[in-house]
Amino acid sequence: MSPAAASLSATVRALIVAALAMWACVRPASAAQQDVLIEAYGDSTTLGISCSDGHCGPQAQNAVTYLQDALQAAHGRRVSVVNHGVGSTTASQLRDGTERGRGTPWKTRLAASRARIVTINYGINEVMQGQTPEQFHAAESDLVATARALGKEVVLETSNPMPDGHLNAKLAAMASMTRRVAAEQHVPLVDQFAYISALPDWKSMMSDGAHPKPALYRIKAGQDFNVLDPLVRQMLDSGNAVHASYQ
């Protein structure tokens, strides 16, 4: 081989190595784009508290865990759901960063989050703390508007109903506000309140006056899945399209 041919061959090899190195850098970034992180925000019914024999505490068998199991069964570990539920809290506390054990306003907190989807589930503590439906509407509106401005997909949820008729009537008004916010801001809604209220035996699936038993948490997760799965599929398909463009 002549010196000129050898030099050209070496140049070609160097270009191939450089191209392969660039592909190695691009491919993981593309794969990372396919991951879907969901963050679930809410009160103790998001956290997953159940009560038995007078003792209440977080349970591994909760709606968020069941939801992640269902989504990973459908899509693998590319999808994950992180539980950010905090007991005894309200939507306004999440917005203002005054939840128990927290201290970061919603806008700051979400700006630092890698979540592509956030779910928001409040209403029960608003009733228990004497907030008005209008106050609840304002807080949820702020949460949704901020999240969307930061590029997050938002899914709103109404609370599960409460066995006490008087409290449940007030909770129905809160659920109506959540439906209103979803309609006004054009975000998906999981109407847990309406669905569970229509079940003939739902009160038997409550562990106390506010918290479901694991069987009802599973039902809630099923309703979550029905709304979230199409969003997740769309995101994963979009990621695959981006990946294919590098082929």
Automatic annotation (TrEMBL):
Any Pfam family: Lipase_GDSL_2
Gene3D superfamilies referenced in this protein's UniProt entry, alphabetically: SGNH hydrolase
Segment forming the signal sequence: 1-31
Instruction: Indicate yes or no for the key word DNA damage.
Output: no
Query: Which positions fall inside the SGNH hydrolase-type esterase domain?
Result: 40-219
Kindly state which keywords UniProt assigns to this record, in alphabetical order: Signal
Q: What is this protein called?
A: SGNH hydrolase-type esterase domain-containing protein
